Amino acid sequence: MKLKNKALTHAVKLALTATTAGLFILGTALAADEQTETTKVNKNVEKIAVVGTRSAPRSIGDSPVPIDIIGGEELSKSGNTDMLELLKGAIPSLNVHSMPISDAASLVRPANLRGLPSDSTLILLNGKRRHRASVIAFLGGGINDGAQGADISVIPSIALKQVEVLRDGAAAQYGSDAIAGVINFELKDASEGGTFEVRHGQYFEGDGDTTQISGNVGLPFTDSGFANLSFQYKTADATSRSVQRADAANLIEAGVPDIAPITQVWGAPEVNDDISIFGNVGLELTNSSEFYMFGNYSERDVRGGFYYRNPHTRPGAYSNDGGETLLVGDLTGDMSGNCPTNIMIDDNVLDNPDYISQVANNPDCFAFNEILPGGFTPNFGGNITDTSLTMGTKGEFTGGMLEGAYYDLSGTVGFNESRYFIYDTINASLGPDSPRDFSPGKYSQLEKNFNFDLSKGFDFGLAYDVNVAGGLEWHEETFTVTSGDEASFIAGPLTEQGFGIGSNGFPGFKPSDAGEYTRRNYAAYVDIEAPFTEDFLMGLALRYEDYDTFGSTVNYKLMGQYHLTEDLNIRGSISTGFRAPTVGQANVSNVQTNLSSGVLVDSALLPPTNPIAMQLGGTELEPEESKSYTFGAVYTLGEIFLTIDYYNIQVEDRISQSEKIELSQADKDILEEAGVPNVQSLAQVSFFTNDFDTTTQGVDFVANYATDLLGGSSTFSLAYNWNETEVTRSTDITGAFKVSRLENDLPNHRGTLTWSQQWESFSMFTRANYFGEYQGVHVDYDETAKMADAAITLDAEVTYFFNDSISFSVGAQNLLDQEAEKLDFTVAPNNNWGGKYYETSPYGINGGFYYAKATYTF
To answer: Which residue intervals define the domain TonB-dependent receptor-like beta-barrel in the entry (predicted)?
Structure first.
């Protein structure tokens, strides 16, 4: 990216006029003195924001930017075992969709902070950048189309001391991806004690049985350190919130055999052998330095439903003219079988005398109705592996020019791999010899990161020392495509007769598709925080970042906080930011099955620099650029704690998947010459593009109150978010329906009201969740869209403490079994896809979930 002179000039002016300004402390939340604790190694090495009890405020009051602190104990009080769902319940500005039948997005679900895609939120672990997942959400529900964010679901709640959510643009501090904010997961660091937990639950509908076993133990690591280890093992059965498809019901009525009672399942996928192991190690080296190391190994198998293939109409397998005539293959090799091409399809082609005499009883001719008369429904799944390791040392210089300065030197390597599988499908071009199960290949993401940070306080005669921090960062990102098994991509002997190539639903990656794509970048940054008076703090961050693919960028952040009174302070920030296109987005290609105007078609995703993509408007990807500002206030009155913050985020040149563009025959011919498989069966193409601008604005409100009530101690928390996104620039490549999804799919209003109650032997936790109106959409089809009603769900948990070590809990998520918005068949009367609810339901489509949990603490 070319350096923008205007932004640089602005940044330099700010640097010259605010040389004593300050910045939010690197990597961790800035907390009030009474809300901090020191590490056991050296009290001056690191200060961390802590929520010690339930009565502590979730939003830090002495920070110039809004921060939420969610303690590990609060995270454990939920029936859901998915970290994304746990955070959604605690942070109203975070939205997570259930993503049924959404290609790879059902394997690693994306999350949206402040209405922006998942890869606009930077994920940290112990303050260090977390690698992104290898999964790209090709069918991401509009807002996440093409997003490639980190896989948060691998992080078990039992491993966490707390989660810190910085709700403010922070690219000037942390680099790419921090447009919406930052979520930092802090691992437990105790050197003794531990917890062992067993949890089991199911949905009110009687499905989705989930069992989770988890544990955490703190161990001494010599006399001067700790080794804190955590694990989680989970299995979850699939769910179904489906009805029989109308076309399948008609086939059953016509006497077509071998059709399942539910041919297409909408629900949560099956998850097997989901295991995560996390470790966090710290060791005092000297009185002024320490060594640290943390990392994880995680793996899971996921399998879910896909679209039903109708035995009369599916292109490339049963009919290539919309179901008028049957697709018949000649098996002789020299086309001597004289196989018919004009067998008409009526209610049941199996009863057609021409089919019986010329195909079913003719060994030289073949139709898939012979072996799959009821059609077929592929199952899509994958094996997801995630691992990381961070090692470093930090401490204080005790001599020389840098005496009194703090340093942090670290290196991180992170790896995520998604190996795809598709079951119960066919490679139609192989005819009767086709296998039914395939491994289409895999994606992998490898990232390496090295950081060196320095900070030192200087006495300039202000209220306190001015803290000056700076550092260097080097980052390498590699995205790899590995080809699948031969049967998943090979063009079989029936290819020239119109039968589709590759595993139907997810064709395998050919050896020519395989490749390794790498990008490197480095950054230099400086942060200054200056307390001009005891009541007035200002901060400045400047960051220069250079990428070996598209050039350099400079970003800044200016923030301030002023105490108007002892109980009331105001705060605000203004910043620029950027999000670099991922290496995967710039290079990946894929064939997807999706619905277009109610018809199931194959669509090719091409690299934006592919000749066809460029012919249709594609260009080499550039970084997104953002400008954001926040303004808010913090008020404390006794046990009442209030924060309110307005934010405005303007993003230019947003990266997303384009509208799926219809292919002409000339386009197909060019693609075929370029080696793209199965071209003649492709109906559409899409590509990643910088094609639109948005403005997102909103308000976050947090209120906490603690008191004695009903013979025990009580804490009440109210959190509310209003969020609105407007697409301020778009082209035909974006598409009107995509614009509508970006603006309307997420509810504009979200809120939670929580009551925690503690007695001597019992505790109780209940949360009411409010979800405002949203756009209901099904199968990414504009004719299904309608505005869905607001709703309230209720979560509750009751715990009995047998003694200091053993407790037993029962609870429910969506206790009153609030039903998702049902599909409106007056809006979409031709819904042939078997769904009951709109996919975009912000609280999911599965309904209430109840559970029991036993915990042993030592």
So the answer is: 376-815
Bridge pairing between strands 774-778 and 762-771: unpaired
Q: Are 471 and 490 in contact (CB under 8 A)?
A: no
Q: Which two tokens stand for residue 13?
A: 């002016």
Q: Which of 144, 16, 188 is nearest to 540 (CA)?
A: 16
172 — phi, psi (to 5°)?
A: -70, -20
Inter-residue contact 186 to 212 (CB < 8 Å): no
Buried/exposed code over 544-582 (b: 16+ C-beta within 10 A; e: otherwise):
bbbbebbeebbbbbbbbbbbeeeeebebbbbbbbbbbbb
Task: Show the tokens assigned to 169.
Answer: 């643009």
pLDDT of residue 95: 86
Number of separate helices (H) and strands (E) present in the chain: 10, 38
Residue 610's contacts (CB-CB under 8 Å, 6 or more residues apart) are 589, 618, 674, 687
Single-letter amino acid, residue 609:
T
What are 526's two structure tokens?
């400086």
pLDDT score for 597:
62
| Chain centroid offset of residue 841 CA | 16
The amino acid present at 347, given as its one-letter code, is D
Per residue, the 3-state secondary structure of 683-704, as one string, reads EEEEEEEEEEEEEEEEEEEEEE
CB atoms within 10 A of CB 762: 13
pTM of the model: 0.89
pLDDT confidence of residue 194: 96
pLDDT at site 504? 92
Question: Are 835 and 242 contacting, i.e. CB atoms less than 8 angstroms apart?
Answer: yes
**First and final C-alpha spacing in the chain:** 54
* Tokens 């002409």, located at residue: 664
Burial of 403 (0-12, 13-18, 19+ CB in 10 A): exposed
Helix H or strand E encompassing 652: strand 640-657
740 φ/ψ angles, rounded to the nearest 5 degrees: -60, -40
Q: Are 751 and 771 in contact (CB under 8 A)?
A: no
Q: How many other β-carbons are positioned within 10 Å of the β-carbon of residue 752?
A: 21
Neighbours of 841 (CB within 10 A): 21
User: Where is 286: in which H helix or E strand?
Assistant: strand 270-286
Query: What pLDDT, on a 0 to 100 scale, did the predictor assign at position 603?
Result: 77
Residue with tokens 């918005």: 821
- CB within 8 A of 43, min separation 6: which ones? none
pLDDT at 512: 84
What per-residue confidence (pLDDT) applies to 102? Answer: 63
Question: Residue ranges of the chain with pLDDT lower than 70?
Answer: 1-60, 78-79, 99, 101-105, 140-141, 593-600, 675-681, 828, 830
Rounded CA-CA distance 144/465 in Å is 44
Distance of CA 485 to the CA centre of its chain: 28
| Structural tokens at position 440 | 């289409």
Measured distance CA(156)–CA(196) in Å, rounded: 13
What would the two tokens of residue 652 be? 């230019």
Per-residue confidence (pLDDT) for residue 598, from 0 to 100: 60
| Contact indicator for 683, 649 with CB cutoff of 8 Å | no
Distance of CA 789 to the CA centre of its chain: 25
Q: In 3D, which of 111, 89, 90 has the Cα closest to residue 99?
A: 111
The Cα-based distances of 797 to 73, 185, 214, 813 in angstroms read: 13, 24, 19, 9
Residue 8, pLDDT score: 36
The kind and range of the H/E element at 829 are none
> Among residues 128, 182, 155, which one has the least CA distance to residue 411?
128
Placement of tokens 């930090």 in the chain: 394
Specify the pairing of strand 781-788 against strand 806-813: unpaired
Q: Measuring CA to CA, which residue among 715, 807, 722 is closest to residue 761?
A: 807
List beta partners, residue 340. none
Residue closest to 317 by CA, chosen among 813, 827, 788, 678: 678
CB 188, CB 230: distance < 8 Å: yes
Q: Is the Cβ–Cβ distance between 100 and 113 less than 8 Å?
A: no
Q: Which among 567, 609, 569, 602 is positioned nearest to 588, based on CA atoms?
A: 609
